């Protein structure tokens, strides 16, 4: 029973549940007749993702929503160069993060300490509790996907480590 629930949840999360239901009713034509949408609200192939500078060594791509707008549900990806260290910081919300590419090394605490950090390979999912300091290191080019409700914000344990203010 538990295994079946896992597969059902996985299918729904990946969107396969709607695809399977759609196909079993005869495909696109049947979906349109039944009042189902026949197109996606957002559909991005990897080559269509627009990367923009985020901070030194990192780029951001907004896939959906507006992370700067209060109440906006958003999905962003952040691409980090190999070896990039993200200093200890926290968010005023639970951070939901999926490792899309590379290895994300992440630890909890106010000091950057790789000895107590854990490695999360491609496909990993993490939720960091709001207001809890954490830090990270990218092993190889690493892309993480974050989803939440705006506004996106980060506070650094040491203000001089604020990656958004460096270089300004």
Structure characterization notes:
This protein is of the alpha+beta class. It folds into two domains: 2-33, no CATH class; 46-158, Jelly Rolls. The protein contains three helices and nine strands; from the N terminus they run αααβββββββββ. Strand 1 and strand 2 (58-64) form a beta hairpin. The longest helix is centred in the N-terminal third of the chain and has 13 residues, at 2-14. The radius of gyration is 19 Å and the shape is globular. The termini are far apart. The model is unreliable at 1-32 (pLDDT under 50).
Text of the CATH class of the largest domain: Mainly Beta
Give the CATH H-level superfamily of the largest domain. Answer: Jelly Rolls
Helix percent band? 10-25%
The secondary-structure element order is HHHEEEEEEEEE
The percentage of residues in β strands lies in 35-45%
Q: Give me the Rg, rounded.
A: 19 Å
Number of domains: 2
- Mean pLDDT over the full residue set: 83
Computed structural class: alpha+beta
- General shape: globular
Largest sheet: 9 strands, antiparallel
CATH topology of the largest domain: Jelly Rolls
Q: What's the end-to-end separation, in Å?
A: 55 Å
Secondary-structure arrangement, i.e. CATH architecture of the largest domain:
Sandwich
Output the number of helix runs. Answer: 3
Number of strands: 9
- Uncertain segments of ≥5 residues (pLDDT<50)? 1-32
């Amino acid at each position: 029973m538990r295994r079946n629930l896992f597969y059902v949840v996985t299918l729904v999360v990946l969107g396969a549940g709607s695809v399977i239901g759609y196909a079993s009713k005869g495909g696109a034509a049947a979906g349109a007749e039944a009042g189902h949408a026949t197109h996606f609200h957002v559909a991005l192939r990897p080559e269509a993702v627009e990367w923009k500078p985020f901070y030194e060594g990192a780029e951001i791509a907004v896939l959906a929503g507006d992370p700067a707008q209060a109440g906006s549900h958003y999905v962003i990806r952040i691409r980090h160069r190999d070896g990039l260290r993200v200093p200890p910081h926290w968010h005023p919300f639970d951070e939901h993060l999926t490792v899309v590419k590379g290895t994300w090394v992440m630890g909890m605490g106010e000091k950057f300490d790789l000895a107590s950090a854990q490695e999360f390979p491609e496909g990993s999912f993490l939720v960091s509790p709001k207001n809890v300091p954490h830090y990270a290191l990218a092993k190889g080019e690493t892309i993480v996907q974050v989803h939440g409700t705006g506004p996106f914000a980060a506070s650094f344990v040491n203000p001089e480590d604020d990656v958004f203010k460096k270089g300004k």
